[in-house]
Amino acid sequence: MQKHLLITISEDVRLMQGVRFVGSFFSNKADVELTLLYVSPRAEVGSGDKVQRSIDKKNTEIYRQKGERALEIARSMLIDRGFPGENITAKLMFKQFGTIKDIAREAKGGSYDAVVLGKRGYAIFEKVLQDSVTRALMERNIEFPLWICRQPEENRRNVLLCVDGSEPSLRITDHVGFMLQHEQDHNVTLFHADTGGAKDIDRMLAEASRVLLNNGVEKERITVQVAPSSGVVKTIVRETEKKAYAVVAVGRAGMKKGLLKGWMVGSRSMKLLEELEKAALWVSQ
Description:
Rossmann fold, ten-stranded mixed sheet
């Protein structure tokens, strides 16, 4: 089945981490449809004098040209990495409600399987969520998985899928299974950081394994690991770097105490995001 990703684009080619990650991660590129999204600022053309209105219009045109150039570079990067040109759509929109809100509206309207944020997109996301009102809005509106790529190292392999038996954990498991069903270069490790409070770990791991199998991930590509832990984030990061995983995948709610409680603010997830650089973080509610 075709996958469809929305990749947010920055005008700075040095910050196109999402593009680089996607280009490196997928081997079966014909099965992946990509929409590149650039949210451009717009100079306010108000009721000022004629000279000021002319300046505002020129600035808006400059913003548009920068966006189109960035989209062109991103498209070329992906084609160079083997994606068919007909699978790539470039989309430029002018900011209406704020960058993150505009991205969320596009994601909900476009039925994408995930939204890919590079370093700049993540920084904007983090800043926006410092406001509690906006965070509450995002809690309601972000119903799609996020892939956060701060500084991913290209050509890493495999997914560390953190499971805890919660509904969000099962949803991210289903997402990983769907994304990896035809990606034979990647295996999945079902990983549980055991702090001593979980019940029936074998059952939760078996349930997660069934979800992967139902998505077409072969049994031989699935491994299971339970690690005793006094600190969940530290354990995850240590395991990620030890085996050079390309992706760490977690359910947004994490454990009831909240691995990703309140999205990215004031929780263990912020620490996880701060620690993870070379691996991408996949998050689903």
